[in-house]
Amino acid sequence: MMxxxxxxxxxxxxxxTTASVLGWDQETRMPERSAAWRGRQLAWLSGRTHELRTSAxxxxxxxxxLQGELTPRERATVVEMKRRLERARRIPTELVEREAELTSQxxxxxxxxxxxxxxxxxxxxxxxxxxLAREKAERWGYDDEPYDALLETYERGxxxxxxxxxxxxxxxxxxxxxxxxxxxxxxxxFTLPPGPYPVAAQQxxxxxxxxxxxxxxxxxxxxxxxxxxxxxxxxxxxxxxxxYDQADFTSSLFAVMHxxxxxxxxQGLNEDDFGTPAGEAASLGIHESQSxxxxxxxxxxxxxxxxxxxxxxxxxxxxxxxxxDTFMRHVLRSDFSLIRVExxxxxxxxxxxxxxxxxxxxxxxxxxVSEVPEAWNAAVQAAFDITPxxxxxxxxxxxxxxxxxxxxxxxxxxxxxNASQLFAAACREDSVRLAVEEASYRPLLxxxxxxxxxxxxxxxxxxxxxxxxxxxxxxxxxxxxxxxxYLG
Amino acid sequence: MMxxxxxxxxxxxxxxTTASVLGWDQETRMPERSAAWRGRQLAWLSGRTHELRTSAxxxxxxxxxLQGELTPRERATVVEMKRRLERARRIPTELVEREAELTSQxxxxxxxxxxxxxxxxxxxxxxxxxxLAREKAERWGYDDEPYDALLETYERGxxxxxxxxxxxxxxxxxxxxxxxxxxxxxxxxFTLPPGPYPVAAQQxxxxxxxxxxxxxxxxxxxxxxxxxxxxxxxxxxxxxxxxYDQADFTSSLFAVMHxxxxxxxxQGLNEDDFGTPAGEAASLGIHESQSxxxxxxxxxxxxxxxxxxxxxxxxxxxxxxxxxDTFMRHVLRSDFSLIRVExxxxxxxxxxxxxxxxxxxxxxxxxxVSEVPEAWNAAVQAAFDITPxxxxxxxxxxxxxxxxxxxxxxxxxxxxxNASQLFAAACREDSVRLAVEEASYRPLLxxxxxxxxxxxxxxxxxxxxxxxxxxxxxxxxxxxxxxxxYLG
Lengths: 488, 488
What we know:
The structure is a homodimer. Chain A is mainly alpha-helical. Chain A folds into two domains: 3-89, no CATH class; 117-488, Neurolysin, domain 3 (Orthogonal Bundle), CATH 1.10.1370. Chain A has 20 helices and three strands. A three-stranded mixed beta sheet of chain A has the order 1-3-2. In chain A, strand 2 and strand 3 form a beta hairpin. In chain A, helix 3 (56-67) packs antiparallel against helix 4, helix 5 (93-115) runs antiparallel to helix 6 and helix 9 (199-213) runs parallel beside helix 10 (249-268). Chain A is globular and about 65 Å long. The A-B interface holds A 10-11, 14-15, 17-18, 21-22, 24-25, 29-34, 37-38, 40-41, 44-45, 48, 216-221, 223, 233-237 and B 10-11, 14-15, 17-18, 21-22, 24-25, 29-34, 37-38, 40-41, 44-45, 48, 216-221, 223, 233-237.
């Protein structure tokens, strides 16, 4: 790739990762009274980033690069940069700043409304957020419906109709599996010894596991937050967070496994391509495949705990002499939860299906904001046979809409489907499977690097899945995985 | 003040505090492999800050403001902004970026040279740093010698000749006091019970003390670093750091008192003036007066420990039943240390006097870089009657020159002198003195806010001292304080 374009991309990444440092600090360290000033800092940075990424210099450097000699990987990188430039240029800086201000306010309003269980207070803000989302969709353009344009932000090339059709087929099987898993879990309850499991011991154990997965702590770290996340502050700076429950060490552990999955992807991207699509994740659906793979396919497996239960006992004497089979009932317990972020593997996707349906109807104008609580509760009742007692545990639980993130939710389930396809494909290689069975993860990580990480965003998400697994993206592997694990 | 100027100042402060967030993270959290990228982020931010602060828009807004109606405080603010603008405009952006790159490299080179006790390896870098300092001094201009121009960066209006004359007078008295203090301390040794003093208990105790001084934790926090510091990340975000020694809880405590003194100043500045000279510290010599006042005048006093020793015992049972008089021998112990940052109150300023003399001679060309180790060791021998066994504990110990900070050192002693004058003046008010004697600090903090903090940088440092104490800045109060405490 030509040097001018590379330099521009590095400058934009410099500014973008500066915002990430501020965002990380905001979630983990910032004193409460500093929120307004931090909003100002982040707004300034997003303005500068948008200016850089839509500049004439950027556009000229792209066109110049496309006229030169390029390797296929370089060409794919520049073509993707051009797609992003054209998309970004449809949004004026004024709108970017307006959105930054609105979402800064609405996140605050949402947090207050959730705490007070007061949906009507949040409703006018949600109207504005929807209006803004529609405005962006119109500016970006779409084939079938506005939701397509929003989805594109998170999952390049995905279509609303295709996801709806996939989810429609998935729904009945998921409900069947979930019901059986919940029933089986209830029939053989197991209560973890009550602890306390000291935070320091959890930290030590989590770190050992993350290192065993291959996470590089010389280029990353783990901190504590209310909601776990993973963020990249530079080519050698990937931060994970988790939250600690002194009554259950697996709570922080599975969060670390999940975020380490994201972090391993970020660390597996080509460092020399940092700041360009070749050094960036392909999509949220691919990103989530990595977190789910390490959390669920590796971390909730019997072979993992065969090796790690004895080490857990060494860290947590209060765990006592619980045997592997009994402990696995804790790892694989299933229940219909009202809260998505607390949902288990067998029931999780049902939460996503209902959110996708609701936000799509909102964007199509088939559902009004005031009807959301009732529609939400009806959908939960239909899926789980329970009704949320309040909106806090219903339609106010997630931050996504308050951030303007319409179109984000379906990528969670795409991630689950991708994870199952990728893990099955990786395990078809003997060297990977045999190592995994012995709780050795280097060959698996190498496989993922080769088949997923190294492409960055130079390939489309479906192309990555197809090349890595030999099949089109679909739900079969995921349903098979869930059936084997929860009905087998 | 006129709104356009205020908006420009806020934008520059937004970018400047963004760099502070990155600097704080670098010192406290950043994974080791991320140093190069962080350097790139900080260089970009310093380039943008310099551009903003030297822009035509800034210059026009200042001139426009000066033609309007202004209160005296507003006029002083704008005049100071004009002074800074003119000073900044003498340095081209190219030099700012060159300096950012050089100091980024030299800090790294210095750290390695110090670790390996290898001054010759650092020497070429020191030559370049001196050359750059001379270049900046020439561009800024000066009356008597280049050192004046560098000093101005840290202590507006100070003159090298005046400081040299002050330090010359101070030297003999300081040496006399220090020798007596060291002798007395040696004659009645006391060893603190060995602990361990757990870090969690130290954190709780330190926080109680900082809160008692008046530090607002809703707009600040304390973290751990190798070298304690205080930094401001926004109008309501002041971060302190300390380091923990499990064998001596007073080590982290006195560092917290010191940094909280800086932090109380930052929190005491007018929040509405943030980003303008009216909301910024007057100078380093005034800043250091606040840290020394709380650390030494308050924190090392018998009245403080009368109230707080029982609370220390509650936090640290291993402290045993040591009585107040015995414990005060630990608080006021004195020794000729080779290391400035470990030096006690009675010997500290002697470290500064020798550094000022050396760096002044370096700038005048009277001392060459290769002669530094020998000159350093001779000065230490003359002052303390000991000779550093190596350069690591000699001329390589401080980071200041590696940061290009020639002219910084004397502000430490100016701070000590200011602290003694200010504390004596504050205690001439009965309400302050009586409260301090009962370990109640709100009236003292209010006095400092009124007499020091509120002026920001709208008054010169000597004017602040004169207005607050009724006398010109001088060394009398400090010598008297040291004599009473260490010879009394």
